[in-house]
Amino acid sequence: MMTEQKQNVQEDTGQKIRPILKRLNNISQDIEASSVMSRDGINLASVMRNNVDQDRLGAMCASLLSLGGKTASELERGNLKQVLIEGDNGCVLIVQIGDRAVLAVVSKPTSRLGMVFNEARKIAREIEEAKVL
Question: Which PANTHER family has this protein been placed in (predicted)?
Answer without folding.
Answer: LATE ENDOSOMAL/LYSOSOMAL MP1 INTERACTING PROTEIN (PTHR13323)
